[in-house]
Structure formats: C-alpha cells, structure tokens
What does this fold into?
Amino acid sequence: MSGTWIAVLVTAAGCYALKLAGLTVPERVLRNPRLRRFAELVPVALLAALVAVQAGAKGSALVFDPARLAGLAAAVVALILKAPFLVVILAAAGTAAVLRLAGIG
Amino acid sequence: MAELAQPADAAGSGRSSPRASTAPRPVRDGVLLGLAVGVSGLAFGAAAVSAGLTVWQTCTLSLLAYTGASQFALAGTIAAGGSLVAGATGAILLGSRNSLYSLRLSGLLQVRGAARLLAALGVTDESTALALAQPGPAAARTGFFATFTSLYLTWNAATLAGAFGADKIGSPQSFGLDVIGPAAFLALIWPRLASGRTERGVAAGGAAIAIAATPLLPPGAPIILAAFAALAGALASRPATAP
It folds into this structure.
C-alpha cells in the first residue's frame, strides 16, 4: 500500500473518530452548566468565524471581493426583512452572480 | 433544558419561539443547503487530483473523512510537497471542530448504536447549523439527517465529477455559489444572534479571531481558534440555576 493511501485512510479514520467522540460524551458530563454553555456557544463562534473567513479571505490571504460582500449584504437585508431561508440564500447568490456578470469582483 | 442556560435577556425568545418566517424548514432547506454547498466538491475533486491523488483516493476522502476543511488540507499539503505525516496530522487537527459540534449535537440527536455510528459521519458545519436553527429536538434531528443525506450525496458526486475534470465546465463562482455557504451560515445563526447579547458577543469575537488569525495560520485553523470566543462567553455567563 502506498504512503498516500495510508495518509488518506489515517485522515479518514481520524476525522471520523473526532466526530464520533463528541457524540459519545456521557450525558452527565454535559450537565456541568459551564461546559453545557460552552457547547451551546461553540457553533455560534465557529459558524460566525466561517462567515467572516468565507466572506473576506482566500486561503491565507485577506481579500476584498465586492461581489461576495454585496451578496452577503443582500443576505443581511433579507434577514432583517425576515425573508425565508430560501430567499436569503437566493438573494445572496443572485446578487453576487449579477455583479460578476457585470464584470464586478 | 438548554433554554435554562440562556442569559436572562433571552428568556422567552430565541430558539424556544423562533420567528416563523425565518425558521428554516428542516427537510426542504436542509436538502437545498446540501445541494448548494455540495457543489463545492467539484473544487475538492479537481484540487486533489491535481495534487497527485488518484481518483479512488480522492473519492475515499469524500466518502469516509467527509469534512471539507480537512480534505482540502491534506490535498494542499501533498500539492505543496509537504510530508504525508504532516498532511494527515494537519487534516486530523482541523477535524477537531467537528468534535465540538457533535458535543453540542449529542443531546439533541439522542442517537445510540448503529444510528450513532452513522450520525457521526454526518457531523459537518452545514448539518450542525441547520439542526441548531430548528425549534425543537425532533425538527433538529430531521434537519440534521436531511442536510446530511443531501450534502453527502452531492459532495461525493461532485468530488467524482471534479476528479474527472468536470470543474472546467464552468466556475461555480460565476453563479454566486461561493456566497451560498456564508449566507446560509449567517441565516442559520441569525436567530441565535437575536436571542442574546452573549451570543452576539461570541459571534463577533469568533469572527474577529478568525480574520485576525487568517494571515498567520494555515486555512481552517483560524476557525478552530474561534472556539476561544465561545469559551470566553461561557465563562462570562452566569451559571444556570437548575430547578
């Protein structure tokens, strides 16, 4: 078996084990109020971080992509107007696509 | 339950009574999210093959690792001529954010045995975000599995197509598909942001940490670092008083 195959399988096993680990934590551990609060806040922190990085970075470089930022701004407007989820992401993608078609970003 | 741990200013708002108009429908929106985000598997398939992985190795990663950041990290390290040990180690470290997600999901999903082994594979940013945006555990479970199924099938089909060079047909970017990920995540955490000052602080802190760390760390690592914002938020919150 080649080294690359071993790296692929070890990566797959490791990533799976990490996902499984959180699901097998005994319930009494999560009864600790601070740990439970941390677990509740983690997705908020990580998903907000993802939004920021996907909006303003490419790889390890911070980038300014007007079409992408305008798309996100359209999503924010849709959310403020309490639009349904589908409308929010269509507004974002549509705005970015139209701007790129026009040669912006 | 979880609402008891919310700060006082969140009482009666947030996930216990989300605004009906913005609450994502678990099945329809989960399937949609999976389709839209899964298309980026094209980019992974193309990147992995051009890094020197075979089509089988590329597809194995999408089938079994099934977590974009780690997959891109392994392919990127191999493409850059880095060692396989470094590539696998970095990829696995990046997978740790899924542990944090599954820690949060365990109480909601309540899965045991074979269902738990299957659910574990499905823990990603997308399935977590859609599940947590639901008003109750039953809808959360439905949303999780709908997103998982849709994203898993799309991501793997797109990986295969990308590995065979289908990414050259057209750039997903020109359709604005690269904006769907961040727009969807924003929409899915929006009700949480409205539910409390701590949540808004944690989100702003997480975003700031990730942006500040982006030029300094390999891609993916800044997202994990953002967990410190959650830690700070948890330590700053008053401990919940259990009845």
Notes: Helices of chain A lie at 3-23, 33-56, 66-80, 85-101. Strands of chain A lie at 57-58, 61-62.
